C-alpha cells in the first residue's frame, strides 16, 4: 500500500477525516473520563503531534497521537513513569501546557489503524513515524503506555506476568509489545491503573450487551482484565493496566 504521511499541522484541512476515521475500540473504552476530557484536544491544540497516513485514494487509513510533557519536572515531583499511565500522562501534558512548563519527553497516546487496513504492518510504520516526529521536535525519548493487543484473550492473567512473557526468540509474546521492542523500545513497568471507567449497570449493559446482574468479576469482550460489578450498589468499575515502554531516540 502506497502511503502519504503528514501531520495535522501540515495539513489542517484533514482534521475531519482524521478524527472521523473508523476504529475498532471497544465502546466502553470511549467513556474513560480523562480521555473524554483531553483526547479530542490533541488534534486541535497539538496538531504537530498528530500524524496520519493516506492511501493512494486519499483516504485516511491510520493515525498516531502523541503529547509532549515534563517527566522530570521538579515542581510536581515526577521523574518516574506514573502508575496511572495513560490517564496520568494526558493530564500532565495538558496541565504543563496550561502552566507553560517546558516538556522534556513525548508520550504516545494512540496508534489507530482503520479496520479495513489492519494486518498490513501499518501500526509499526506509524510508530516509526511517531519516533521520527518526536526526534524532529528536539526530543530524545518517547514513552508509551502500551495496551497489549492480545491481553484481552487472557483477562485473568496478571499483567505483570503477561507483559514480560517472551517467545523462544526472546521477543515479547504479545504482538503489539513485540512491535515496540523491534522498533527499539524497552519494556519498563506495568501501569496498574492506566485507564478507569466507572459507570452505572445500565450503561455497562448498553455498551456490552451483558446482563451485569451478578456481583464480582465480569469478563467483557475487548477488556484486558475483568470488570468489577456491584449490582447491590448499581455500578461497575473497570481499571485497565497498561505496559510502559521506553524508546530512546
From TrEMBL:
Identify the domain of life. Bacteria
- SUPFAM superfamilies xrefs: Acyl-CoA N-acyltransferases (Nat)
The record, for InterPro entries, names: Acyl_CoA_acyltransferase
Task: Please state what the protein is called.
Answer: N-acetyltransferase family protein
Amino acid at each position: 500500500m502506497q502511503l502519504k504521511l503528514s501531520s495535522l499541522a501540515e495539513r489542517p484541512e484533514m482534521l475531519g477525516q482524521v478524527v472521523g476515521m473508523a476504529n475498532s475500540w471497544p465502546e466502553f473504552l470511549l467513556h474513560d473520563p480523562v480521555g473524554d476530557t483531553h483526547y479530542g484536544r490533541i488534534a486541535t491544540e497539538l496538531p504537530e503531534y498528530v500524524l496520519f497516513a493516506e492511501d493512494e485514494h486519499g483516504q485516511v487509513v491510520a493515525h498516531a497521537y502523541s503529547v509532549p510533557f515534563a517527566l522530570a519536572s521538579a515542581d510536581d515531583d515526577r521523574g518516574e513513569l506514573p502508575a496511572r499511565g495513560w490517564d496520568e500522562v494526558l493530564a500532565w501534558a495538558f496541565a504543563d501546557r496550561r502552566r507553560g512548563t517546558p516538556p522534556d519527553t513525548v508520550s504516545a497516546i494512540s496508534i489507530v489503524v482503520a479496520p479495513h487496513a489492519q494486518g498490513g504492518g501499518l501500526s509499526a510504520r506509524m510508530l516509526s513515524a511517531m519516533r521520527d516526529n518526536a526526534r524532529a521536535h528536539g526530543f530524545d525519548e518517547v514513552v508509551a503506555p502500551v495496551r497489549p493487543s492480545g491481553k484481552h484473550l487472557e483477562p485473568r492473567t496478571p499483567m505483570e506476568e503477561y507483559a514480560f512473557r517472551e517467545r523462544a526468540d526472546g521477543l515479547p509474546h504479545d504482538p503489539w509489545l513485540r512491535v515496540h521492542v523491534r522498533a527499539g523500545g524497552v519494556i519498563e513497568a506495568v501501569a496498574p491503573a492506566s485507564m478507569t471507567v466507572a459507570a452505572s449497570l445500565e450503561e455497562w449493559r448498553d455498551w456490552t450487551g451483558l446482563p451485569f446482574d451478578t456481583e464480582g468479576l465480569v469478563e467483557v469482550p475487548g477488556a484486558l482484565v475483568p470488570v468489577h460489578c456491584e449490582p447491590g450498589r448499581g455500578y461497575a468499575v473497570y481499571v485497565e493496566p497498561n505496559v510502559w515502554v521506553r524508546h530512546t531516540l
